[in-house]
Amino acid sequence: MFRSLNPDLLRSFLIITETQSFSETAERVGRSQAAVSQQIKRLETILGQKLINRDHRDHHLTTEGEILYDYARQILALNDEAYLRLSQSDIDGILHIGAPEVLTATRLSKILSNFRQSHPHIVLNVNCLLSHELQHEFSNGSYDVVLYLRELENTHQKSENQYYREKLSWIKGKSETIDWSKPLPLILTPSPCIYRAQAIQNLEKHRIAWRGVMTAHSLSGRISAIKNGLGVSLLPTDMVDNDLEIISTKDTPLPDVNDLEMVYETKQSKTARQNALAQQFVETLLNHGV
Predict the structure, then answer these.
(1) Is the dihedral of CA 160, 52, 13, 49 positive or negative?
(2) Which residues of the chain have pLDDT under 70?
(3) Is 70 helix (H, G, I), strand (E, B) or coil?
(4) Helix/strand/coil for 7
(5) How far apart are CA 202 and CA 253, in angstroms?
(6) 215 burial class (0-12, 13-18, 19+ CB within 10 angstroms)?
(7) DSSP 8-state class, residue 272
(8) Residue 49 CA neighbour count, 13 Å, CB half
(9) Per-residue pLDDT, 252
(10) Environment class of 131 (CB within 10 Å of its CB; exposed 0-12, middle 13-18, buried 19+)
């Protein structure tokens, strides 16, 4: 005989997992701390499994708790999506999203369009900045959802909140040739952009002489400079078009560069509606893949 998993129990379980705090969870769900504790015990009783190991400071998920965590996120996302669509089809609001330009120039526009079709009354406020700026502003509460690039935490395993892995390549204009007897002419992003750091660190590590010929915040500006033969740059491989060419690391002194990862984070808002909208946007993001 199957028993139902109450979404309220699952929501408290998720918030405890993310906040590591029964008191903060109680505040968010509008219950007493004792009531939240009872919710977790009830969930453990229903499943017949211990889900959280508790000590004085930390609350660690058991193996069974880790399994439930993934299911709980999916169940609540569908629950909230169904509720918002069917009970409040005319729901409105503003969803603040932060993303780097490289994402908005490629994948994100289609995803935003799909999300707007499902939520026509939602205002999407999208801001494009460098990844380190996005992280800083997100920590200050500026966005409901933020996406940014970072170095891979584990090259052999996908991070829990990874959207995709980004492969980097050295890129030049299609018809351009490089004089390897001279310092490499490099087109850069402003410091401390992650592309700039990766390019310089890899060149310095392999003792390859280089000179900066242009620094541009704009992705389109850097690509235009490459196409016009001003220099080479380190860019996502999927940015290559018919006017650009990947420089082979097998036939030249240039080194291979490790992949980066695009990750996402959502802010835990005090309103259920805002949390649901942020989660639905992430689900749209993940469902459309890369």
Answers:
(1) positive
(2) 1-2, 56-58, 81, 84-92, 154-157, 270-273, 288-290
(3) helix
(4) helix
(5) 11
(6) middle
(7) H
(8) 11
(9) 93
(10) buried
Reading the block at residue 226, the tokens are 């490459």
Dmax over CA atoms of the chain, in Å, equals 75
pLDDT score at 20: 80
Q: Which amino acid is at 144?
A: D
Do β-strands 244-246 and 59-61 pair in parallel, antiparallel, or remain unpaired? unpaired
- Tokens 């805002």, residue located: 274
Helix intervals (H) in 140-271:
194-205, 219-227
Query: Measured in Å, how far apart are the chain's first and last C-alpha atoms?
Result: 40
C-alpha distances (whole Å) from 255 to each of 47, 107, 123, 128, 196 are 52, 27, 44, 30, 15
Which runs of consecutive H residues, i.e. helices, occur in the chain?
7-19, 22-29, 33-47, 63-87, 101-104, 108-118, 131-139, 194-205, 219-227, 272-287
pLDDT recorded at residue 133: 92
Per the CB < 8 A criterion, the answer to whether 78 and 270 are in contact is no
* pTM above threshold 0.70: no
Q: Where are the alpha helices (H) located in 88-187, listed in sequence order?
A: 101-104, 108-118, 131-139
Q: Report the pLDDT value the prediction gives residue 260, as an integer from 0 to 100.
A: 93
Q: Which residue has the tokens 């992003």?
A: 189
pLDDT value at residue 17: 84
Look at residue 57 in the predicted model and tell me its pLDDT: 65
Cα angle value 287/268/111 (rounded, 5°):
25
Report the pLDDT value the prediction gives residue 276, as an integer from 0 to 100: 74
- In this prediction, residue 146 carries a pLDDT of 94
